[in-house]
Design goal:
Blueprint (H helix, E strand, L loop, with lengths): L2 H21 L2 H17 L10 H23 L18 H16 L2 H12 L4 H8 L3 H18 L4 H8 L25
Length: 193
């Protein structure tokens, strides 16, 4: 096995996890990963050793997924709701199970651009710069999509800002600072001529 093949093999679990989250279907995700790996092997000469292989592979996977979605829209592919596989692993705890199901449903309702960023940052633990490379967008766009996606998830999950801050804050909150607003100075009175 070549060094490149070993590097590819090490990235397969991450690729599969992201593909499953994107497609919400195990067999389609596996097909997507397979076509990504096939393309990576065929285009191996384009990868520069020393650069981020994971970002390169995620870019290939992302572009392949976009092409597949466009093709399915053109061809009018339909999917039965019953055929959609769960995205996340369900824990035995009933409350956790319901929360995960609700989260999965909420993530599925996000616009594709926000869902991709949420999954790459939250699920894959990628840095903003890596996500920007994968998606081919500026880092600022990644940040804004992530912020909007998180806000939308909070709304979809029925959490307001107070719920989020009170549940997730272990430190004492700083007192609110008074809001300072800049105002234009009033024009000087004109002298009579």
């Amino acid at each position: 096995m070549t060094d490149f093949a070993k590097l590819l093999e090490a990235e397969i679990p991450r690729l599969r996890r992201y593909a499953r989250a994107l497609t919400r279907d195990v067999s389609r995700a596996d097909d997507l990963v397979q076509s990504c790996l096939t393309r990576a092997v065929a285009k191996q000469h384009l990868w520069q050793p020393g650069t981020d292989l994971r970002a390169w592979l995620f870019t290939i996977l992302h572009n392949q997924h976009v092409n597949d979605v466009r093709r399915s829209v053109r061809e009018g592919v339909s999917v039965a709701v019953e055929d959609i596989a769960p995205v996340l692993t369900v824990q035995s705890n009933a409350i956790s199970s319901l929360q995960l199901r609700d989260l999965e449903t909420a993530i599925a309702k996000l616009p594709q651009e926000q869902r991709q960023v949420i999954l790459l940052v939250g699920l894959e633990g990628m840095r903003y710069e890596e996500v920007a490379l994968v998606l081919g967008v500026p880092v600022g766009t990644v940040r804004s999509r992530l912020s909007r996606g998180r806000d939308q998830l909070r709304r979809l999950m029925g959490m307001d800002d107070e719920d989020v801050s009170s549940e997730n804050m272990d430190v004492e909150e700083a007192p609110a600072r008074p809001r300072v607003t800049a105002r234009r100075a009033a024009p000087a009175p004109r002298a009579a001529a």
